[in-house]
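Hi P.,

Sorry for the delay on this. The queue was packed all week, but I finally got your sequence through. Input first:
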Amino acid sequence: MNIDNNFFNNFNNLLNKQSIEIIQQNLENCDEWIFKNIKLMKLKRIKRYKVKEIKLRKLTILNGKITFKRRRYYKINPETGKEEYIFLWIKF
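Then the structure:
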C-alpha cells in the first residue's frame, strides 16, 4: 500500500493545530472561571484585586505558539498608594 507522505504531514499539522486550539480554549476557560468566582474565594487578599484589562498572552510549546486572553488584575498598595498588578491563577 502506497500512502503519500503529504497525508501524514497534513494529518500531523491538523493534530498540532487542534491541540493548540484546545489548550488555548482551556486557558481562557480557566481565566473566565476565576473571574466569575473571585468573589466566592475565601482568600481576602485575592478579593481586593479588580480587573485592570484583558491582555493577550503567548505561550510556546512543542506543538507551536499559543495566544490566549488573560485578565490582568490590580490593587492599590495601602503602604505606597501605587497599583500592583497580577495575573491570577488557581492550583488544583
